[in-house]
Structure formats: structure tokens, C-alpha cells
């Protein structure tokens, strides 16, 4: 089977180099090239390639946004990332967006050839550095939600009963400013922005009877 390949990279030298590499591969046909994500999407829609070999950081449409657009417009195309960047801000969004493989540009050419063929077959391909980052992310314990203090729970309980800040302050013999401060901390800990959402979130988490 011949693998139909589209190359997307904003550096002409890189595209020329990749084209020269794949000329030697009888089972890979380059059916299109593009200098950015918008062009790459147009080419992929027109050519319906098996694999799109793409950089991440490009002008205009690039990175995870480009990969996501490809998945929507050309779901049959497998996206293989070939880039110089391997930070969490690059790897994780790209994989989450649908990239089936992730290689660094210093990978040996034979590894790139194997990756393109594997991607066409639906196999996941990750460089060792990228695989290590993903494993670290999976193994990293999820952050525990911040717990409300006893006073914050009391303030929230009064709010849940319909008390205003003034009424809560009077009930607890504290100032309205202190009540507002407690509420601000509660919003932050619960990840909400208003009283109603705070009460709803507290009930969902079993913080209120």
C-alpha cells in the first residue's frame, strides 16, 4: 500500500529536506505541501492523505488548533507531529487534539520513515522524550481540591440559608468586609464566581448538609 503524505511546515528548507528524504521511499507518495495550518487544511481536504506530517508552531493556524481542525474536516488522515519542541505546553495539547504520533526533528530519518508507515496503519508513535513526558503526566497525582476552613463552611451555610453579607456578619459577630473575604476564598477554592454557584458546588461535594 502506498502512503499518501502531506507535509506542513513553515520553513521551506525543512519541507525540501523531507521531500528529498521520502523520494527514496517507494511506498510513500507526497501529495501536497503547505507552509501553515490554513494551507495544510485546504490541501488535506483536497487530497485526502493518509498521513499529515506537521510542525506545531506556525504562523496563523497551528498546533493543537490545526490538529483539531484536521480531525474534524479530514477524520481519515492521521496526524504525525514533527517538531523541535517537546515541552508539556506542546506535547499534551497536540496529543489531546488527536495527533497519533509525536517526533522531534533530530530523530533519525529511519525513525521518521517508520513513524509515517506506523501512523498510516493507525499505530501510535512517540519519541522516547515525548513518551516519558506523557508517562510523567499520567503518573502525576491529581491535585487535591482545596478544603474549606470551618469558618468558611459556616459562612457558606449561612449564605445557603439565604443570609445577606450583613446578616451573616451579624450572626458571626464579624464585619461585612470579613464575610466578603471569606466568600472570595470560598469562590477560589470551589472554582466558582458567585454565591449561587458556590452553594451548588458545596452541595455537590457534600460540604453542606
Describe the model.
It contains ten helices and six strands. With 209 residues, it is an alpha/beta fold. It folds into two domains: 137 residues, Rossmann fold; 55 residues, Winged helix-like DNA-binding domain superfamily/Winged helix DNA-binding domain (Arc Repressor Mutant, subunit A, Orthogonal Bundle). α3 links the parallel β3 and β4. α3 packs parallel to α4, α7 crosses α9 and α7 packs across α10. The longest helix is centred in the last third of the chain and has 15 residues. InterPro entries: CheY-like_superfamily (IPR011006), NreC/VraR/RcsB-like_REC (IPR058245), Sig_transdc_resp-reg_C-effctor (IPR016032), Sig_transdc_resp-reg_receiver (IPR001789), Tscrpt_reg_LuxR_C (IPR000792), WalR-like (IPR039420).
Short note summarizing the structure:
The chain is α/β, with parallel strands linked by helices. It contains 10 helices and 6 strands.
Amino acid at each position: 500500500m502506498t502512503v499518501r503524505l502531506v507535509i506542513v511546515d513553515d520553513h521551506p528548507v525543512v519541507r525540501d529536506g523531507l521531500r528529498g528524504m521520502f523520494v527514496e521511499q517507494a511506498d510513500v507518495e507526497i501529495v501536497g505541501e503547505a507552509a501553515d495550518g490554513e494551507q495544510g487544511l485546504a490541501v488535506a481536504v483536497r487530497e485526502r492523505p493518509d498521513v499529515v506530517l506537521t510542525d506545531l508552531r506556525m504562523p496563523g493556524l497551528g498546533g493543537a488548533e490545526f490538529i483539531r481542525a484536521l480531525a474534524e474536516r479530514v477524520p481519515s488522515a492521521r496526524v504525525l507531529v514533527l517538531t523541535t519542541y517537546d515541552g508539556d505546553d506542546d506535547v499534551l495539547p497536540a496529543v489531546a487534539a488527536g495527533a497519533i504520533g509525536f517526533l522531534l526533528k533530530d530523530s533519525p530519518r529511519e525513525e521518521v520513515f517508520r513513524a509515517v508507515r506506523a501512523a498510516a496503519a493507525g499505530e501510535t508513535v512517540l519519541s522516547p522524550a515525548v513518551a516519558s513526558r506523557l508517562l510523567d503526566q499520567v503518573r502525576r497525582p491529581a491535585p487535591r481540591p482545596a478544603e474549606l476552613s470551618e469558618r468558611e463552611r459556616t459562612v457558606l451555610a449561612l449564605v445557603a440559608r439565604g443570609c445577606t453579607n450583613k446578616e451573616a456578619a451579624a450572626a458571626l459577630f464579624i464585619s461585612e468586609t470579613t464575610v466578603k473575604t471569606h466568600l472570595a476564598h470560598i469562590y477560589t477554592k470551589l472554582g466558582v464566581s458567585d454565591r449561587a454557584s458556590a452553594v451548588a458546588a458545596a452541595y455537590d461535594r457534600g460540604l453542606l448538609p
